[in-house]
Amino acid sequence: MANKLVVGNMKMNLSYDEIEEYIDRMQGYQDCIICPSYIYVPYFIDSGFTTGVQDVASYDNGSYTGEVSAKQLASLGVKYTIIGHSERRELFNDTDALIKEKIIKALTNNLKVILCVGETLTERENDQAKKKIADQLLTDLKDIDNINDDNLIIAYEPIWAIGTGKVPSNDDIDEIISYIKELTNKEYHINPKVLYGGSTNDANIKELAQIKSVDGFLVGGACLVPDKFIKIIEAVR
Ligand code: 13P
To answer: Atom 1, ligand 1: which residue's CA is nearest?
Structure first.
């Protein structure tokens, strides 16, 4: 189970004081990828963390109030961007077409992409999980010819498992992750790392880390608490 990737998605959390304390407490554990709010990115980079962001603009530059471009992020030293998180898809209307544009901008500027996919509870109950994920992958990555095993990571995040304390069984996670690997190999001739995300915490990480097909974890709530996040990082080192 060694050497799985750990990515922290901090979402819209923590004040400046809390971030200073967080960085202090995380010394020695910079081997995760941390995705804070944009405003905190330079503090994490200066403290030696591999740093990502939670979203990126679909435009190069110009009059797009409130947006942050891949070029700006790369110029700061950002290495990764999450794209297509279910919260962006649901709350901010990030469509598959928009997600595709964001992926293109990220890759053009040498940001690595962590593309999130996953099904709702209703889709799972109706045996539509694989169909939903296939639809997302086949649209989001269509005709992007510069994706490879190094610049693309897929994160499988069942929407019903995010922030709920509910986690699929290891067999169910393995089935979907293996399906994603088969699909990306068949359709795009690539073998990207595939992460699991959804209520991963310090109590279930040892169990989840047993799943051989899982290459790492995209952690939300538990990454905000250094004691918990450190346990997760240590469990997969
Ligand atoms: P939780 O770990 O809080 O369930 O969040 C998962 C997530 O959305 C990470 O992107």
So the answer is: 220
